[in-house]
Every structure is written in C-alpha cells, then in structure tokens.
Amino acid sequence: MKENPLQTTIKEEVRLEGVGLHTGNKSSLTFRPSLANTGIRFFRADLPGIPMIPARLAFVVTTVRGTNLGLGEAKVHTIEHVLSACTGLGIDNIDVLTSANEPPIMDGSAMPFVEALLRAGLVDLDAPKRWLHLPHEVTYQAKDGARYRAEPSDRFEISATLIHDHPMMPKMSLSMTVDLESYLAEVARARTFCFEHEVASLQSQGLAQGGSLENAIVIGKSEFHTNAEGLRYQDEFVRHKMLDLIGDLTLIGRPLFKMRITAERLGHAHNVEFAKLLDEAAKKLRKSKNRVLEAK
Ligand SMILES: [Zn+2]
User: Fold this and answer.
1) Are 20 and 77 within 8 A, CB to CB?
2) How far away, in angstroms, is 37 Cα from ligand 1 center?
3) CA 194 – ligand 1 centroid, Å
4) Is 268 designated active site?
5) How far is the CA of 241 from the centre of ligand 1 (A)?
6) 134 to each of 99, 127, 250, 269, 277, how far by Cα in Å?
7) What is the DSSP letter of 252?
8) Topology at the third CATH level for domain 138-295
9) CA-CA-CA-CA torsion sign (76, 106, 232, 197)
10) What's the rounded Cα separation, in Å, for the pair 246 and 173?
11) pLDDT tens digits, residue range 271-295?
C-alpha cells in the first residue's frame, strides 16, 4: 500500500463512553479534528481551563502498567491504546478530550477507538507528513533482558517477542509489515492482559480498579479467563504488545518511516526509552541536513 504523503485529521467530532481500566472512573472521550502540525493533544475537559497535555515523550510522567502523561497538575493515564489507534489509521493531528484522568478502556483493545475514528472519517490536510527518518541502526538494552533494535528498511516492520516465565505463556514471536490493512486485521483487536497472581496486588496498589473480563484477559495457572468470546487470536498477547508499542512510539510525534523494529520483552517503560533514542537519532540527522543546507 502506498503511504499518504499528506498529514491527516478527522472530519468531524466523535465520542465514546466507558470506564478507565486502572482508576475505574467513568470516562468519556471525544475526538476532535485539528490543524496541521498540531500533533495529537489530550485535554482534560473535566478540569478548570481544560488543560492540554501534548502526546509527546517529554510529557511522560510514569510508565507503571500503562503510559501516563502529565503537564503541571493535569494528568492523563493509560493513553497508549488511543494513540495506537490514531497511528494505525495514519492520523497525525487530533484533539482528544477526556472527562476523567484516564480514557475509557472499552474492550481492552484499540478497535473501539479505530471504529469511532473511522465513523468520524479521515481527511487530508494541506501539509506534508513529517516522517521520522532513521539515519542508522538504533539499539536499546535493559537490565531485565529487554532488547530493542531499529534499522532502516524499505518498509515499516515490527518483530516482537514475548518471553514470560509462565506455563500458559510459551515464548511467542510475531513479525509483520505494519500498514493500514495489517493493523486493522492483525493488531487493533488484540486485548490487554494480566496474570491472575498479579490481580490482587494491582488492585491493592489502586490499579486495575475498572478491570474485568470484558476488557482484559486474565492468565491463570492452567487456563485463560476471558469473556464468552474466548481468545481472539492464539497469540493475542504478542499482538497486544505490538499494539502498545505502536501507541508508545506515537509519542515521538512523527510517523515512523521505513524501518524494521525488533523487540523482545516489551513493556511501556522500555518502549518509551527506546522511543527517546529513535527521536534523538532522527533529530541529529535533521540537524546535520540543516547544516549542509546552510553551508550551501
Ligand atoms: Zn495495552
């Protein structure tokens, strides 16, 4: 599929309602069209003055069981599925208004957001996309064994590997070229998950208060606990990790252009650190290109 060279937004406002996964707060979310070069911005519609928080790496405040943004007193938690839906559809500019400190979790995947955005319709803006060009290979390695690599390629590809020391979770890998079709068919519907032994501790930390089998898969010692639907894919877990990675990389603020990403033991904290390295490498490349132009 050919990439759209133009920036996009949505045609009209669209709204969703539900509860926040971690806070359990009732929450509604409104997507609004926006102008070229404004990027993706969250607004806390429930707070005085409707404070804005840019969906950018500099505003990440924590990465505990989700990616959380903040600017001053205003915070918005667990934004990765919303961002993943925007990037999956190639949306560069959009305002996201939330009525609470967390968007609704919906079914635990990105699909409800994708469907709402498609209902609103996409529109091209009169400005070229500002792709993130990678000058060379970028690697990231963490003490817990997480490993990430990005290298220039002729398309946008992700290979993800999930490694958990759990009898129900054998090592799971998936590679794909990410475009609109593959995102919709293979990634967007994959739901979030947690392990049964974590549930009590998450809840005692004040997390997963809105969690249920309607919005998460719970991995037990010898079985998966799901709603009546069962697993959507045998490897739904690695697909969801890909969904999260696409969401977290959105915080760079530029669509990723022709690179191959390989990632093992993915998590939000690692995704964000890796995104910072990609951003720095691409910034250096842009600076050196500007210097060449100035010298001419
Ligand atoms: Zn997730």
Assistant:
1) yes
2) 27
3) 10
4) yes
5) 7
6) 37, 21, 15, 21, 10
7) G
8) lpxc deacetylase, domain 1 (3.30.1700)
9) positive
10) 16
11) 999 999 999 998 888 888 877 777 7
Question: pLDDT, tens digit, for every residue of 85-119?
Answer: 999 999 999 999 999 999 999 999 999 999 999 99
- Give, for 178, the enclosing helix (H) or strand (E): none
User: Domain limits of the chain?
Assistant: 6-128, 138-295
pTM: 0.95
- 160 CB-contact burial (10 Å; exposed 0-12 / middle 13-18 / buried 19+): buried
* Cα 292 to middle of ligand 1, angstroms: 41
Helix (H) / strand (E) containing 282: helix 268-295
CATH 3.50.30.30 is the classification of domain 6-128: no
- Using a CB cutoff of 5 Å, list residues around ligand 1, an ion: 192, 244
Give the long-range contacts of residues 151-157, CB within 8 A, separation 24 or more: 151/259, 151/260, 152/258, 152/259, 152/260, 153/258, 153/259, 153/260, 154/258, 155/179, 155/258, 156/256, 156/257, 156/258, 156/259, 157/259, 157/260, 157/261
> Letter for the amino acid at 291?
R
22, 77, 268, 270: the catalytic one is 268
Which single residue is written with the structure tokens 């100035």? 294
